Every structure is written in C-alpha cells, then in structure tokens.
Amino acid sequence: MSNIINKIMKIPEPVRQGMFFGLNSGVITTTGLIAGIAQTFSNPLYIIISIVSLAISDGFSEAYGLYISKKAEKISDDSTNPFYSFVSLLITKALIVLSFLIPFIFSKKLTYFKNLSWPFLWGAFLLFILDYHLSGIRDDNFFYYYIPHIVILFVVMGLSKWFSKMIMKLE
To answer: Mean pLDDT across the chain, nearest whole number?
Structure first.
C-alpha cells in the first residue's frame, strides 16, 4: 500500500485534486442520473445519450467551476495550477462517467440499469479505490471516508429513483 500511496503523493497537488474530485463527482452524479432515467425509459439509447451528455456538460461545468474557484483563491496567482486541476478533473470525470457504459459493450440489455445493480456496484467499487487511497494519504481510518460515501450513493440513487417515479405518475 505504501508504494502506491507514495506514487500518488508524487502526483502534483492540482492534478491529484482534479482526479479525486472527478472520480467522486463522476460516480455520484452518474449513479443518480442512471437511477432516475433507467426507471422511466425503456430504450437503452436514452441512457447512453444521457451518460455521454453528462460526461461532456458536467465535466466541463465542474472543471471550469474548480478553475474559477482556484483563481479566486489567490487573485495574484498566475500559476498554471488551476489549469492542471481543470484538465485532470475534466479527463477523470469523463472517463469515470463513460465507464458506466461498460455493460453495453458486452450486452445491449437494459436490465443492468433497471435493477440498479451495475451502477451501484461499479460506483461502490470506484469509491472504494478513492477512499482507500485517500485514507492512506491522510493516514486516516478507511471507513471514515467510505461509509459516508456509500450513504451518499444510496441517498442519491434512492431520491433520483423516487422522484423519477413520482414525476412519471404525473403523466
């Protein structure tokens, strides 16, 4: 573990921030999106289009938001650090969001998304990796990070699914 943590610590801080932010945000937003959309649409193309759109729009939105907030921290800072955070967040978020399309590579069935097993398990696995490394870097208890992440994952998926069903009843 210490070898991997040492390698992560050698990554420049702005790049590491973007990677961790992108992984966390990519998992939470994508699982919420899938939980809501998979319950309402029977065509897998809707989910694919939504995931690709999320990778692009939310990736750029959050990356630029981080860039602007970093620039606002130090008005006189002309370094390229905010740009590195922007790029690493954008790339990480896009890759994480698009990774939720893996079931469609092997099967065109929507069942992976309807029962929410794939999004939850994949999201929990990615958060496990993130929290494992974060707890190692900070020398904290792993569960201090992982349990809140899983609770947030459940809440986001549950609320998204519930609200989508409520809205569909308005039809």
So the answer is: 86
